[in-house]
Amino acid sequence: MSEKVLMKGAEAIAESAIRAGCMAFFGYPITPQNETPEYFSRRMPQVGRVFLQAESEVAAINMVYGAACTGTRVITTSSSPGISLMQEGFSYIANSNVPCVVVNVMRGGPGLGDIAPAQADYNQATKGGGHGDYHSIVIAPHTVQEAADLMFKAFGLADKYRIMVVMLMDGLMGQMMEPVEFREWVDVKNNKIPVWATAGQGKRARRNIITSLEILAEGLEKMDIALQEKYTEIKSSEVCCEEYMMDDAEYAITAFGTVARISKTVVDLARERGIKAGLIRPVTVWPFPEMVFKKRAEQVRFFFDVEMNEGQMLLDVRLSVNGKKPVYYYGRLGGIVPSAEEMLDELEKLVGGKK
Fold first, then answer.
1. Peptide bond preceding 179: is omega within 30 degrees of 0, i.e. cis?
2. Where are the domains of the chain?
3. Are 76 and 29 in contact (CB under 8 A)?
4. Do the bridges between strand 24-27 and strand 50-53 make them parallel or antiparallel, or are there none, so unpaired?
5. What's the pLDDT at 355?
6. Which parts of 179-313 fold into alpha helices (H)?
7. Residue 3: per-residue pLDDT
8. Can you name the CATH fold of 5-199+225-237?
């Protein structure tokens, strides 16, 4: 590990992606993640790699698609409206079984909304977004350090499953500065071209042709079934979740990303007041840690879901709990970040009504 450096989250994920072996970046500027392409534009030429600012988000994701077909580690980053424009490309990438990483630094919406931090893209990310029966692996860091660390995991999972991995952050995490310690570099000098990649026929008996098109319904069904089998394997092997102070917890706060970070303070404050609270933080929001919630439903009195949206993860929490215990919700919309004090106040109201 190197010495710690003070960096914005938007810059840290770029440096970490480079160290993880990312060979190409294609993207288009949008607030609040403009520091990411700016950083890539400076660093990628220094290490002999590709940076290209596309003419639009639609063009950028199709460039990612093309590069991914060659087996190259490739990334794009954007923010909510830009991610919306990429959705068709996401669907093509999914049915073509090619790996890539996408970072969404979420801002307020719908529409152009504002440039304040929000979590309103949860459903878009975890439920597919584009057309068709597909999923992407979606990871949600809650600190800049974790975002940098998870970038390595994102590329690893993308390659392992030939899938798109989405890193779901928000504008606050993209703009905040924290000390970050980076991992060592992945050695890319001896990278082998994957056997499935479109990198010229060479000594192969046949050419590799990658496409998401299948005219016959029977053929497309077979492709879809193969995708579902892959997703089943991912759900059984790649779930990641952090539990904070849950061993003796009577009340479980559930949150992801920045709100989960604030929730740890809420747990600490609640325990100072005699309320045995804990936190369940999904790190992978797809696949969702259903079994963790099912297990804790046998223990806690209720779940308290807090988000910076209308309650989009709330449905996944309720489905996982399956009616065994009440699930309450508190959220702020439009880019407002809830404070620890207001979250604690809402928790105390619920506890007071349930004791």
1. no
2. 5-199+225-237, 242-354
3. no
4. parallel
5. 45
6. 217-237, 257-272, 290-296
7. 79
8. Rossmann fold (3.40.50)
